[in-house]
Amino acid sequence: MLSWPTGPCCIAWPTQPPFTQEPLNEGLVESLQPKEKRKGRGKGKLAPNAEHCQMPIDPQVEALCQTFNIEDRIMRRLNDVMLTREGSFDSDMKALWEVCENAQKPSGFLMVKIGELERGCFTGAGKLDQAMLQFRNRWRLDDRALAKFVEVVHPRDQKTEDMAQLDRLLKGAQNPSQAIMPGTRRTRERLHKMLSALC
């Protein structure tokens, strides 16, 4: 059995309690109180120090987003990606204006273009020639499918062959916008094979 040592080698406990009652600091008490309860699971909340980290929105980006009623979160994402495009900022903004003017849903098409900017494969406005415009109208492609179609078919010399192949693919499709995605992927793979054979 263990026994506690007694005698002069023991530690003396203070006679006064370690904590004393001091007057409360009202500012500290208020800062520790929970703020108004917010609904949701972190949506829309910023860290307390996040306000100083946000870059100001470029006036051109803000004008584009206000003109086409683009949400703030998309505007901020566009602003962030455009900060990395200093060399081609003006030409990219011009292309984005053209994209939004021609799009059925500018916010959706702009999200596609922001993704391209982030990946570094921005195709610009990708002007549609008459044949491509007829193809789009014939199959009633949505903005996402049209962007993919323009990205793959527009820079190629064999547009008519590519569109004929995609026409055959889409003949029995119930949703051409969804059905065209694998077709454009195959066209891109064929293009990469041809380029690698030349190199």
Description:
The radius of gyration is 31 Å and the shape is elongated. It has 199 residues and is mostly helical. It has nine helices and no strands.
When the domains are counted, the total is 2
Overall 3D form: elongated
Strand content: under 5%
Q: Kindly report the average pLDDT value.
A: 74
Count up the helices.
9
Total beta-strand segments: 0
Q: Which bin fits the share of residues in helices?
A: 55-70%
Write the layout of secondary structure elements.
Layout: H1 26-32, H2 59-67, H3 72-82, H4 89-102, H5 106-119, H6 130-139, H7 143-153, H8 159-170, H9 176-198
Please give a handful of descriptors for the protein shown:
199 residues; mainly alpha; elongated; 9 helices
Provide a compact summary of the structure.
The protein has 199 residues and is an all-alpha fold. It has nine helices and no strands.
